[in-house]
Structure prediction request, 313 residues.
Amino acid sequence: MESVIRDGVAIIDHFESQGGADFSPTTPKQRILSRLFDVIGAEGFLRPAMHYRWNFPKQNLEFLQYHFQAATPRGPNRKERADKTMDQMRGAGHAFGAVPETFDAIETHYIEFLKVLDSHFSDQPYLLGGKPSIADFGMLAPLYAHLGRDPGPLSLMQEHAIRVFRWVERMNRPELDVGEFEIQDGQYLASDEIPDSLVDVLKHIAIDFVPETQAAAACINSWISQQDNLEPGTECARGVGMANFQLRGVTINALAQPFRFYLLKRVQDEFESLDKQQQDEVTSLLDACQMTDILEMKLSREIGRQNNLEVWL
Prediction:
């Protein structure tokens, strides 16, 4: 019997269950960060991904036209249908807060991120050591599909962060491609170690991820409180309003997306499963990363999955 699995997170979950969870660390701090990076990759990089794809037509347009047309079913008006899809996706970039007034803040924040991540990859082949994890899979989604493949952002990555670019190459190969590193054991860092360089990466991500998540939670919870007939099993919309927060003194208006909290609850559930000593160790780590608040950012209504869709429980 054939089955269909939709959504990258669910697909990875499926193969992890089939393969004995081989890419999920077992130690507390590494496991929590692995899940957290999965959320960040899926939801925290939509803004730069959309900005660098759609707001640099000189570099990207021909490349995007080719690939969107190739992905469009053959038949009459294929180019026009592809162009319509492209316009819809370009509009999504605006919904995530990539508008002219925010371009400078987005670009400054992203280039700084590349540099701090590049520093981490000067010592480590993957985010948690010598082996890829769920963290790497989550972050690869935006850092390859948009930011490491479209011509404009690809050139930025190659210019500012060659080690990040090498990680993107490494993640697209089935074997461990770690010839330039001393670490070649194919293992996560021992003793649940989290390098200072990875703490620095998360501190930088926290600058916009934490306030956006907080604003989105408030927006979605307000929306939930106004729903009189939100029956269990009702499909979650992509967004239910606009959340406002500050990035480098600039106001960002971005779509408040329930899916962020479906993923974030997996982090929170992992934390709740730990014993008191482990929770204290994780809390101390998240404090250093300026990410502790994400443990308390919850929706007033839980989300599940039915028939390949996120639904309200």
Summary: Strands lie at 242-247, 250-255, 303-306, 309-312. The chain has one domain: 8-312.
